[in-house]
Amino acid sequence: MQISVVGGGYVGLVSAVCLAELGHIVRLIEIDQKKVDLINHGIPPIFELGLEEILKKNIGSGLIALSGYEEMENADCIVICVGTPPDKEGAADLSYIKSAAQSIGKAVKDIDKYQVITVKSTVPPGTTETLVKPIVMQNSGRTNDTLGFCMNPEFLREGRAIDDFMHPDRIVIGGDCDEAVRIFRKIYENLNAPLLSCSLKAAEMIKYASNAFLATKISFSNEIGNLCKKMGIDVYDVMKGVGYDHRINPYFLNAGLGFGGSCFPKDVSALVKLAEKYGEKPVLLKSVLSINDKQPARIVSLLEERIGSLKSKHIAVLGLAFKDNTDDVRDSRAIPVIEKLLKKGANVVAYDPMANETMKKVFPCIKYCEKPGAALSGADACLVLTEWPQFSDLNDEFRLMKNRVIIEGRRILSADVTEGVCW
Ligand code: UGA
Q1: What is the CA angle 107-121-98, rounded to 5?
Q2: Residue 236 is assigned to a structural domain of this protein
Q3: Whose CA is nearest to atom 34 of ligand 1?
Q4: What's the CA-to-centroid distance between 264 and ligand 1, angstroms?
Q5: pLDDT level of residue 192 (50, 70, 90 thresholds)
Q6: pTM of this prediction?
Q7: What pLDDT, in 10s, does the model give residues 316-371?
Q8: pLDDT, position 90
Q9: Atom from ligand 1 closest to the CA of residue 386
Q10: Average of per-residue pLDDT values in the chain
Q11: Are 53 and 183 in a shared domain?
Q12: N or C: which terminus of the chain has fewer CB atoms within 10 Å of its end residue's CB?
């Protein structure tokens, strides 16, 4: 099939590359010319495991990046993947969606082929039906019988996005008519996954509800973990026992510093705003956010309990990315932790396998090291804030510390004499 993907950010680029890998002809439309040039040279502007390899394989054959809405007459499907960042109140900012819909509308004017416009961005329920569709229809001047609309949420995890795209747990397609869904589902013909076809609004809500549920599992584990810590119980044993129940499952029960990244905090707070807009009091979702907001302060208080005042103390921080396998620090739990350490006068010396450069933009003044040993050398204490698998190999490096006080925000170390924020 011929597919135009609008937006070359995280979701757009991964989707475009994977759709080309599935054998489709894909045009990736991205307004940033620098990104377009990089992509056309086979260089991904973001780091994602395995992305460079399949980008290089497909670019110039099944895939091309364009800076304008070109060759739209060939597209069977046009997939909107632009960002929906939070606005000042925490609701989803739909300005990129609006302008993409406008540009698509103008670009598909005078085309008589049946085309499907699909929203893949995470958008509040109702957006495809009441915002995207009218804007496209108005700007294109076309009629319902030549344009169909779908909503197809993505469930990619950063660091595992290619694998998640190629082996999804499910494919959700909301549609405004059977014909649109019939055509759009063909793009996933070669993937083996259950397909749920539903209304546009239900598809939009499935994405929010999925992320909110996963975030709830994490905050739940953290609340249990905080109690377990006080009672001398290992929360990891507890959650292992809980997770064996097939009705619960073992995933996303890892207690620690809480969730970060560009999705969970943003999507849960957008859902809270949405519920309030409809006169609901989303007490559970608010608690999920509140537990999450408080976890970083706990690790700093625990550190003070162990070593006293933090003033002028050398604190080694291992891990800056919001999770392993990425250089992304958006809403990383390391940010509030480092802020608190600096406020208390500590000297923060940091190490991350990939995210030193990205974190320098947030904290230009702390010291960054190329090796964990360099950050640990002479340290009064160490905080581990990201679940990088390679941290489990650290052992001798801890001997370089002045005091062996090690507190984990993620359970990843195998070295002795460590404790965790809630274990
Ligand atoms: C999340 C969802 O997992 C994806 O399904 C979804 O598509 C994506 O958001 C999105 O909306 O685009 P992502 O934010 O990339 O993916 O990362 P996750 O692996 O879900 O981790 C999020 C945060 O939760 C990380 O900070 C991680 O350390 C934390 N986490 C995860 C825990 O604290 N405990 C756990 O048990 C699992």
Answers
A1: 45
A2: no
A3: 254
A4: 7
A5: very high
A6: 0.96
A7: 999 999 999 999 999 999 999 999 999 999 999 999 999 999 999 999 999 999 99
A8: 84
A9: 28
A10: 97
A11: yes
A12: N
Task: Answer yes or no: do 127 and 52 share one domain.
Answer: yes
Q: What angle do CA 292, 294, 300 make, to 5 degrees?
A: 125
Ligand 1 binding pocket includes 323 (Cβ within 6 Å): yes
pLDDT tens per residue across span 147-177: 999 999 999 999 999 999 999 999 999 999 9
257 domain-assigned: no
- What pLDDT score does 146 carry? 94
Q: Strand 115-119 to strand 77-80: parallel, antiparallel, or no bridges (unpaired)?
A: parallel
Catalytic residue among 81, 263, 369, 382: 263
- CB of 155 closer than 6 angstroms to any ligand 1 atom: yes
Q: Is 186 helix (H, G, I), strand (E, B) or coil?
A: helix
The token pair that represents 328 in the structure block: 């992304």
Query: What are the C-alpha distances in Å from 66 to residues 24, 30, 59?
Result: 16, 6, 12
Residues 37 and 165 in one domain: yes
**Single residue among 146, 167, 198 that ends a domain in this structure:** 198
Q: Is residue 154 part of a domain?
A: yes
Residue 212 binned pLDDT confidence (cut-offs 50, 70, 90): very high
What is the domain extent for residue 355? 264-420
Same domain, 270 and 179: no
Same domain, yes or no, for 10 and 159?
yes
CATH number at residue 280: 3.40.50.720
Domain count, the chain: 2
Same domain for 141 and 45: yes
C-beta of 219 in contact with ligand 1 (< 6 A): no
Burial class (CB in 10 A: 0-12, 13-18, 19+), 362: middle
Q: Are residues 95 and 188 in the same domain?
A: yes
From the CB of 291, is ligand 1 less than 6 Å away?
no
Residue 223 Cα to ligand 1 midpoint, Å, equals 18
Q: Would residue 184 count as lying in a domain?
A: yes
Same domain, 183 and 306: no
The C-alpha atoms of residue 156 and residue 109 are separated, in whole angstroms, by 32
Active-site residue flag, 198: no
50 three-class SS: coil
